[in-house]
Amino acid sequence: MKNKLFILLALCSSLAYAEPRDFGLAKLPDMPKNSEFAETANELPAVPNPNQGEWLDLYVNETHTGKPRILLDSLHILPDRSVRYLFNSRSASGYDNVTAEGLVCAEGIFNSDGALHKTFAYADLDNQRWIIARNAKWRVIGSKRNAADPVRRVLYEVICANNKILNEKQLRQLLIEQGSTARENRNQRSGK
Asked: Which keywords label this protein (predicted)?
C-alpha cells in the first residue's frame, strides 16, 4: 500500500511540475503576453521640502497611526506606464521619511490583478540629497485585497483599479477624490 501511495505522489508531483506557469510578475495589462516590463529611466527631482508644496494627506484607515503624504506635483506617468511619485511616510510624531517611488499595475499575479512597487531613493533632508536605494527591485505588492502594505494599497486602489487613467491631471484628481482625507470624511458621514 505504501509503495502505491508513493508512486501516486511521485506521479502527481511530476505532473504538477511539468507545466511551469508564468504569473506575469513583470507584465503590463496592455502588453503582449510574452513581453517583459522594460523600465523607463527617470531622473530624480530636487529633494522636496516636506512642509512646502502640494502634499496630499492619504487616508489609510481609522487605525493607521502614520500620516502618509504624496506630492501631487511629482506624479508622472512614464512611457512604460509606471507611475512615479514622491512619498512622505510621515510618522505620527511628525518625522518625515521622503522617498522616490514607482508603481506599476500588473496582471496575472496569481490569477488576480496586482501591482509592482519600487523605491528608487531616500531623501536626506538635512543635506538636500538623494540616497539611491541599494538593490532596488520591482516587488510584488499584490492587489487591493492584500493588507500587508495598507498605504500602498490606497495607491493601488486609485491607480490600478482605475486603469482608464489617461493623464497626470486625471490621476491627481482621482487621488484627491479617492485617496485623501476627503475620503475619510465621506466614510464618516455615510457611516462606513
From this structure: Signal
Q: Read off the DSSP letter of residue 121.
A: E
Give pTM, 2 decimals.
Answer: 0.72
Instruction: Tell me phi and psi for residue 69, to 5 degrees.
Output: -140, 150
Beta bridge partners of 118: 102
Grid coordinates of 50: 516636506
Report the first-to-last Cα separation within the chain, whole angstroms: 57
- Residue 182 CA to residue 58 CA, distance in Å, equals 9
The pLDDT tens digits for 160-188 are 776 667 789 988 988 888 887 655 554 55
108-142: pLDDT as tens digits: 544 455 688 899 999 999 999 999 999 898 888 76
Contact partners, residue 178, CB within 8 Å, separation at least 6? 157, 158, 162
